[in-house]
Amino acid sequence: MAPQPKYLSGDQSAIDEFINKFDIFLFDCDGVLWSGDHLFPGTVETLELLRSKGKKIVFVTNNSTKSRADYQKKLSSMGIPSEIDEIFASAYSSAIYISRIMKLPAPKNKVYVIGEAGIETELRSEGVEFVGGTDPAFRRDITPEDYTKMADGSMLDENVGIVLAGLDFHINYLKLSIGYQYLARGAKFLATNTDSTLPSNHTFFPGAGSISIPLINMTGQHPIALGKPSQAMMDSIEGKFQFDRKAACMIGDRLDTDIRFGLEGKLGGTLAVLTGVSKKAEWEVEGAKVVPAYYVDKLSDLKG
Amino acid sequence: MAPQPKYLSGDQSAIDEFINKFDIFLFDCDGVLWSGDHLFPGTVETLELLRSKGKKIVFVTNNSTKSRADYQKKLSSMGIPSEIDEIFASAYSSAIYISRIMKLPAPKNKVYVIGEAGIETELRSEGVEFVGGTDPAFRRDITPEDYTKMADGSMLDENVGIVLAGLDFHINYLKLSIGYQYLARGAKFLATNTDSTLPSNHTFFPGAGSISIPLINMTGQHPIALGKPSQAMMDSIEGKFQFDRKAACMIGDRLDTDIRFGLEGKLGGTLAVLTGVSKKAEWEVEGAKVVPAYYVDKLSDLKG
Questions:
Q1: Which residues of B touch A200 (CB under 8 A)?
Q2: What is the model's pLDDT at position A180?
Q3: Is the pLDDT score of B4 beyond 80?
Q4: Which of the two ends of chain B, N or C, has the fewest CB atoms closer than 10 A to its terminal CB?
Q5: Chain B residues contacting A, CB < 8 Å?
Q6: Where does the record place the catalytic residues (chains A, B) (predicted)?
């Protein structure tokens, strides 16, 4: 069996050692801080304790429909105080990646967006030009004229060099067709994240990964994903916060996204909390590939 | 190298032998009879020749948006006379499969349709009940209320036992969400066909397979496909026409769909025509897996 994680709940000296070891904590949110609309007791106090010890906190979410400002409102509505600079969502991650890492030469650096307003806000904040997104001109049925104008390119923007697909509650045949045309003409393919489902109301709805997958199916190309567990997101976070990875710890409830994200990013630590998706049994089996360094029953166990 | 196909063009005795060997010819259409809007010269005469020799002709198409009647109009508009009973499209294939092969016990045998009117027409012709499809109630944005009503099941039809996904020019987030809910509740998963793209105007648009793939991505389930090269379609054709497979020949332009369909169906023969997608070089390489039994440069070479 793989080396097993250290269990921290109820062990104050181990908790102190754990907290002292790191300067920055990356937090997954749903399943860690809250579940659905239910804030876990002690969440706010635990975050306060870490802040009082001078720790940097970053909320890392794959949610691609919200800008950082939107997400701060969500945290606020859950009763969690935060700074906008503590928030790292996949829409922002994508904008950062495009503007600071890809840096395509103008003018062929426009982005065709499949997604909601949060992506647009973050692209604007980085000065990235885009088409598509929430533009009503793209929220309609395809017409016979569209086929001709896509085929001859006359309805396409020749400066689009990137297709960015996120969660789009207004996905339609026209948007997918246009996305395909840009990719077929050589645009780079990015996805805010590739989660196949979106958990809500104790069931699942299509996630961002189920919006981009028709384009993968049509082109055979796979997008660079800017959400957990993709390391492109870790690179974006590091680019922004400039921290020592050895002094960073990822905290999350999902082994396949959060813990994997921290392990592959070679962070100093990973902490699993058992208030979400993954269960202890998943790392206690022979051949388990993703094993956190630490685990607690619930986040508030850290405040002792 | 695999045994190579017999080349018939210009070899009258080989052509006569070929035609005499079969009683029924299954025809792919686009790339064989016509390309786009252009009817190949000699198509009508070749079909007449076969009919005059008492051969049965079946037009086999993966087009899922058209009923047989719609497709007959298309053939007619291309100048090709046909009988409705000579037409086998994937919408009809799906209806036949549901009504004559699956035969789910009532009342849990309703179909949730993602697709266009052709599917509805064919389901009605087989007396199969359905919801979804072109119903305007499903052609709208998702609302906050929908999430609740999907989660508690109150907006779902409890008698839906099958999800059938075909090409849908009105695909949206609501339809995909509902499709997921039915599958998660145990409905059987069918697809009219799984072509990733739809060729049109010398480029590509999303095909039926790019409509069903978000559901595959969300559920991990793969649908039974009712179009070429799926043998479920061959079973449907055989169920309807009752022929000896050894006396049947599949004629098509695509190795990966048409010729494979005939080979896996163990038909007596397969004929590739070089007026469409696949080229001779594809079966002339070492390790070629799909090799037709015969080929011609163009269909009309059969009329000598």
A1: 147, 151
A2: 98
A3: yes
A4: N
A5: 141-142, 147-148, 150-151, 168-173, 176-177, 180-181, 184, 196-197, 200-207, 209-211, 213-214, 217-218
A6: 28 (nucleophile), 30 (proton donor)
DSSP string, A147-162: HHHHHTSTTS-TTEEE
Alpha carbons B211 and B222: distance in angstroms, whole number: 13
- Residue B90's nearest CA partner among B213, B236, B289 is B236
What fold characterizes domain A103-225?
Rossmann fold (3.40.50)
CB pairs under 8 A between A and B: 100
Model pLDDT for residues B195-232, shown as the tens digit of each residue: 999 988 889 999 999 999 999 999 999 999 999 999 99
Contacts of B177 in chain A (CB under 8 A): 205-206
A195 annotated among ligand-binding-site residues: no
Q: Is the ipTM of this complex over 0.90?
A: yes
What are the residue boundaries of the structural domains of chain B, listed by start?
6-62+229-303, 106-225
Closest Cα in chain A to B169 = A173
Position B16 scores a pLDDT of 97
User: Domain B106-225 class?
Assistant: alpha beta
Catalytic residue among B16, B30, B37, B85: B30
CA distances from B110 to A202, B95, B107 (A): 26, 12, 7
Burial class (CB in 10 A: 0-12, 13-18, 19+), B11: middle
Distance CA B278, CA B41 (A): 20
Q: Read out DSSP for A36-50?
A: TTEEPTTHHHHHHHH
CB atoms within 10 A of CB A154: 9
Question: Residue A135 pLDDT > 90, yes or no?
Answer: yes
The answer on whether B28 is annotated among ligand-binding residues is: yes
Q: What average pLDDT does chain A have? A: 96
How would CATH label the architecture of B6-62+229-303? 3-Layer(aba) Sandwich (3.40)
| Residues A11-48: tens digit of each pLDDT | 999 999 999 999 999 999 999 999 988 999 999 999 99
